[in-house]
Structure formats: C-alpha cells, structure tokens
Amino acid sequence: MIPEAREVHLSRKDRKVLEACCRSPVTLQRDLKRARIVLLAADGRSTRSIAKEVGVQPRIVSLWRHRYADHGLEGLQDKPRPGKQPIYTKTTDKRILKLLDKPPPQGFARWTGPLLAEALGDVDVQYVWRFLRSHKIDLVARKSWCESNDPNFTAKAADVVGLYVAPPAKAIVLCVDEKPSIQALERAQGYLKLPNGRALTGQSHDYKRHGTTTLFAALEVATGKIIATHSKRRRRVEFLDFMNSVTATFPNRKLHDILDNLNTHKKNEDWLKAHPNVQFHFTPTSASWLNQVEVWFSILQGQSLSGTSFTSLKQLQEHIDAYVNAYNDRAEPFVWTKKKVRQRRFKGRRITQL
C-alpha cells in the first residue's frame, strides 16, 4: 500500500540545485531520478504519474517525497549503512607490528607472511600480506647502513665538501683511492636462443682465473678526468709510487688529495715533507662515500668490467686502460649538490625505512 502523498514545497535555492542536477551530464542516474521526482512533486503531480514518467515504482516516489519533505536536500542522500562487521581491526594491525619487532622463530633469518600468520594464530595469511603491502613493509628486501663514530665527522665532512663546492684558487683537487683485487676471469660468453624464440646474452657460470690487479685511480674534480695505474699489491710503497706519478702530472701546482682512512694513506709525513705542494684531506671514518672516485669505480664496474671475459691479466689491464682513455675523452665533472652533511645516529631509534 502506497503511503499518503506528502506535499512538496521547493524553495528557489533548492529548485536551482535540483534543476542544475538534472541538466548536468555527470549526474548519477540515481541522483537524477530523485531530483526529477522532487521537482515533479513540487509541481503538484500525483505519485503514480511521477512513477510512470520517471520509470520507477510508486513506493520509490513516495519514499523520496517523504525524505525531502522531512529533511530537505540532505534527505536525498543515501543514509550510511552499517555493512558487515570487519573480521580484522586496528588491534590486529597492532599485533602484527608488535610481532615484527620481535625476533623470528628460532632457525629462521626473518619473518615471512606464513610465519606471522602462524604466530598470530587467528589471522589469515592473505590479510597479513595485504597489511604489509598497505604499509609498504618488505620482509625480503634488505638495506645496509654504516654509522660513523668519528668524533670529528662534521669538521672532516665540511673540509671535503668545501673542496667540492669552493675549491682553492689555482689548485688541483683530486679524489684518490684503490680498487683492489680486480679478477681476470675467463668465461664462455655469447647469445643463448630459448625454445620460445627469444635470444638472451649471457655467460657461463664456470670460469677460469688468470690473476688479479689493483687499480690506483685519481679523479680530477674540476674536469672529471681519471689518472690510473695498475699494481699487483696495495701496500704503502705502491700508494706512494702512484702519488709520485700524480704529482709529476701536475708540476708546480698545489694539490689537495681527498683520501679515505686506509692505513697506507696515513702516516706519510716524510713523503709530504718532500712534497710541500701536496696536502692530504681525509674523509670521516666509515664515510668513504664522500670520495667522488668511489662513484667512478661504480661506473667502471658497470660499464667496463661486469659481464666481460679475459684470457690473461694483461688483457684485463689493457681493457681497463682503454676504458679510461675513452672515458677521459668525454669526461665531465660530477656535480656535488649536497652542501651540508650532518651526522645522524641510529641508536635508540627504530629503523623503519631507509
């Protein structure tokens, strides 16, 4: 039975809103029908005639006539529905996070989704995975960090960064370091055609060693060019021999050499007295990333050494020398953008993301 029709009285403001809703091409069909019902009802139309014109049941027309008459435009909106009670709540989320703070079960290196679900007992593993994804928690990926305990970190870092952003006038700034034990590995290489027609390039897992070489390198900060030599070992004598060749490359020039804290780089006062134009600057302890030549070593590894094969140590050395020559032909200086380097300690803080 259809309830008695309610009279609908529209204000000018409400009529403009409903008419605009009817004209808009982006209005939802449900909202469009409700607006038309109220407008037709305000014009004095009967419930049945409105239902026939709009294409709904008379009880639907009666519902929205009553809703508008009682609550105005707000009555045309859907009321919140309770819905199904969630199985898992914020309490469940807190339990998962609390469990992640604890060590994994004995014998396991890290937590996994199934291990978390098993430890919780009443939480499905699929919810555990959804929760981890929503909080961007990766149980597999691992990051490493190194915390410097150098009490003079700030002063040393400022000294090195100062040489990058404001080098002394008429002086050469060099970043010096070694890449030790580069292996001359001989591997079978070529293209492998798969049954599906794809062709992949790769190398064999089997290899033959032909010795190692240590590469001493100095990067000129102003130009990005590299000075490099090979050595069998990386003792103090080899380091000073390399520095002799570097100073010979820049005669009568003031040199500022940036070095890490390797023992062979230090306690060279006698050599420095014999070369008064050379000054050593050391990066803070456990902060060799401040040395720009480390960036170049990474480029060397990626562009020249990874995935190559050598039949002799001499071939490896010639290969590196050829790359250095090619790199110097197109060398550009690295742009150091970070002007302030601060020391932040991790102790007492939970590391959630790096």
Automatic annotation (TrEMBL):
It comes from the Bacteria. SUPFAM superfamilies: Homeodomain-like (SSF46689). Pfam families: DDE_3 (PF13358), HTH_32 (PF13565). Residues 173-317 form the Tc1-like transposase DDE domain. This is Transposase. It comes from Bradyrhizobium japonicum.
